[in-house]
Design brief:
CATH topology: Recoverin, domain 1
Shape: globular
Domain SH2: 114-213
InterPro entries: p53-like_TF_DNA-bd_sf, SH2, SH2_dom_sf, STAT, STAT_linker
Radius of gyration: 20 Å
Distance between the termini: 67 Å
GO molecular function: DNA binding; DNA-binding transcription factor activity
Oligomer: single chain
CATH class: Mainly Alpha
Number of helices: 9
Number of domains: 1
Helix content: 40-55%
Family: Belongs to the transcription factor STAT family.
Strand order of the largest sheet: 5-4-3-6-7
Protein name: STAT6 protein
Structural class: alpha+beta
Largest sheet: 5 strands, mixed
CATH superfamily: EF-hand
Order of helices and strands: HEHHEHHHEEEHHEEH
Length: 234
């Protein structure tokens, strides 16, 4: 006899997300000499970071992994704790329930359902943008406002939607004549939206977008991602 890799049997496609979570947790955190099917209920947050990073890079097939600031955002999200220091999370442990059982506050989905949606979207539509580091992605709406509020009119960045599974949104600053600033978030784009018109072409279409944060002209940042056919010229 031999122990196999973890297998989950499902009877309907809507169980696929939970099955992937179970396999991932088992693969990452089970001990070699364990009693069959016994897996830790809680794991160190640092181990979870490593697991999410490996999963992201493998699924998206990119060499550009998650950064320290991405882990900070993910920690705030999974623990529902907006601590101001990355170190606040260093010695914490995360439970299976926090990972894929408890619904995120104010949402209709779990942390894993949200993260898996980001994986799928990035793999299908955003791989080249992510690999070129054009997408910050894992950043809160509140922190985006802090970053952009002092920037010139038309400065923008890309973040994964908090409110929708598998969405990417563009946040940009609008500065009034009196110098006041307002940060707006464009309705998130789904994989279906981006299969109709790519992210690069959508960014080119939006005249209010000028510079990718912190200060890269959008044509310089995204020019290689524009469709060579000028669809907006007719």
């Amino acid at each position: 006899q031999v122990l196999s890799l973890p297998i989950v049997v499902i009877v309907h496609g809507n169980q696929d997300n939970n099955a992937k979570a179970t396999v991932l947790w088992d693969n990452a955190f089970s001990e070699i000499d364990r009693v069959p099917f016994v897996v830790a209920e809680r794991v160190p947050w640092e181990k979870m970071c490593d697991t999410l990073n490996l999963k992201f890079m493998a699924e998206v097939q990119t060499t550009k992994g998650l950064l320290k600031e991405h882990y900070f955002f993910l920690a705030q999200k999974i623990f529902n704790d907006h601590s101001t220091s990355f170190e606040d999370f260093q010695n914490r442990s995360v439970s299976w329930a926090q990972f894929n059982k408890e619904i995120l506050p104010g949402r209709g989905f779990t942390f894993w359902q949200w993260f898996d949606g980001v994986l799928d979207l990035t793999k299908r539509c955003l791989k080249s943008y992510w690999s070129d580091r054009l997408i910050i992605g894992f950043i809160s709406k509140q922190y985006v406002c802090k970053l952009l509020s002092t920037e010139p009119d038309g400065t923008f960045l890309l973040r994964f939607s908090d409110s929708e599974i598998g969405g990417v949104t563009i946040a940009h600053v609008i500065r009034g004549k009196d110098g006041s600033s307002q940060v707006e978030n464009i309705q998130p784009f789904s994989a279906k939206d981006l299969s109709i018109r790519s992210l690069g072409d959508r960014i080119r279409d939006l005249g209010q977008l000028r510079n990718l944060y912190p200060n890269i002209p959008k044509d310089q940042a995204f020019g290689s991602h524009y469709n060579s056919e000028w669809l907006g010229g007719g």
